[in-house]
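Hi V.,

You were right to ask for the full record rather than a summary. Here it is.
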Amino acid sequence: MIFKKRKKESEELPIYDLKPQVSENGDTKYVPKSKSSKWNTSALIKNVYWKIVLINLLIWLFCVNYFERTTLRSSLAACEWQRWEGWDKAARPHRIALVADPQLVDDHTYPGRFRLLTYFIKKLSDNYLFRNHRYVQTYLDPDTTIFLGDLFDGGRQWKPDAWMEEYKRFNKVYPKKPNRRMINDLPGNHDIGFESINIEARKRFSAFFGTPNEALEIGNHSFVILDTISLSSENKQLQEDSLEFLSTLNDHINPAFPRVLLTHVPLYRFTESQTCGPLRESKKPFPVMKGLQYQTVIDYEISKNILSTVKPTLVFSGDDHDYCDITHKYESDGVAMSAREITVKSASMTCGIKYPAIQLLSLHNPYDPKPKTTLEPDNTLKTKMCTLPKPYVAIFVYVTLLVVSIISFIAAREKNLKLFMNSYERGILPVSSGKHPFSFRLLRDMRQIDLWFLLDFFYFIVILYIVFGLFYTFI
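Predicted structure:
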């Protein structure tokens, strides 16, 4: 026989635990209120373990500030103009930042990969480029920023609507600074193609970024921006603009100014004798090859014609993604001349190099129409590679720290910690040895885990997202 304990008649519920209920015949009686859910709004705040959330946030703030601010400031401090220019104190040089191959990651970059993974890579890459650009513009404050092509990765393949979205995205990643000049009219093979140039893509690029074949006077130097990709085309119609530009070049530039040539694809070189120097990451010789929609160097005869026509003192190129510094020997009108060519490192984190970089150029050529003495061209410009922080170190630290944070949120709940310890202790006792491995028991016991840690983690992620947003917005 089972005896049930009777409620005492005097045991009544307090009035605030009762609620009125009207029956069908109109009588009113009071019934107990239903228990409120533990997931109500008040509980969602009270049950957060704010202490562990704040501890994790402080650790993250330190790491984020170190990788997003301290390392970048340290890198740019080594690039400060006064450290390497060597001009007189009274000099007012014109300063230029050269950016090669940003190649904005898009759906053509990693075909076959999950869209979600591509999305995260795009975000990481865009943030890396944007942050570095903003810091360069703020702390180095170049007068002019010049891009050396391959602004996009799949620009030659995009349909008009998709290309326009990528164009807007480029302008968000590389916003123009007031009272400063930005030149980005030099196309790369990823922008318009190479052996089979996409004519529509070429027209579109020129319409939005400007005509590539042009001569500009910057800091009393003549900058010759040459579309060597179209010049290399077998299609005579595509060659016309570049050929006409070269044939009339002397009509458009000041013969007294030193000349600087800008080309996306490097000029031809003999890799056995023209080595790239110690600043190149790769220990292999500079590649001289052709492939689908790319060519690593301009053909020899075209390169020779460009040098003898332009007569540059200095050449800047891109495309290779790694640094290379060589000297070209050539003749122009029977006179032996030379030109230094620097292939600028890619500024992107997704181009297969450990240390992305930009190239800095300082120009100082005081101009006098009737000078008593003239400066040698080599003495009117100085250049330096400016290395940017290693991107993957920060990513590795962030991923590791995220795993540690998740573990800390789980372990911070006393029930979860006891559950873990009990699973472990049962594993080392003699009576249970050999039955089930520790990992199996832990997975089995996970059904009893205190899921409130998910709430801690949610609040933490929301705040951390805001922190990263602020770091990338206010630079």
